[in-house]
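INFO  loader      accepted 1 record
INFO  loader      residues=275
INFO  predictor   begin
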Amino acid sequence: MTHYLNNQFDHRRYYDVADETPFWSAPFGLKLLDFVNYRPSISALDIGFGTGFPLTELAMRLGASSNLFGIDPCVEAFDRVNNKLEYYGIKNVTLIEGVAENIPLPDLSLDLITSNNGINNVKNRVQVFKECFRLLKPYGQFVMTLNTELTMVEFYNSFERVLVKLGMEEVIDRMRSHILIKRPPVDLLVTELEDAGFKINHIASDQFCYRFADGSAMLNHFFIRFAFMEPWVQLLPAESVMTVFTMVEDDLNQNAISNGMTLTIPFVLIDSLRY
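INFO  predictor   done
INFO  writer      dumping tokens
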């Protein structure tokens, strides 16, 4: 019943076969692409390009006169993205293995920086914003999307109900801290951007949903197991994992009897300028 807790993934193979990452990132990325200030002959950087979206799409929309870079620490993804670039005939993209806190590009060298749900995953967000400010030319644009604190609230509500029943209030505190670290409030992001020197140009909120037959289907979904299960499990004492997730699965299934299960993914786009 809880075999979704036993996950050992070969991350090298993931980038060969998985379509879930672009499927997950598409709603964020389509919103991001709508807010880019398109013009020819610019230099741009995409932070956390993953399997190549929206980097490859951005390269085609900006055209061959522009020069683009993508940075990501997961070198396993590079072959897949390079294959896309070759097949699409894109010749104006350079991939960089590295982290967003230390980007090997010169000061004042970029007109545009994008990050599609990548800032959630950096270790030092404040340093990343300072680095983006360093790289952008005056009036350069920084556009990012992030999923926000009510992401998958349906799961977290069930998780919390079970923890309350079991008297595990200390885990509830850890869960809430985990959410705030991974999905900071928008007003905190705005403050950090402004402290780094940016001026906020536009903020847009949106959301999408994943629908499932029930909680069991959700918990066994590949992308849930790959991207979310390990952090959820790590919130718990090892001896409690099986009990908690059995109860969570039962709770989700009970609530899904009438209309199935929905996971809501709210997100925000922040468009800012360097002055």
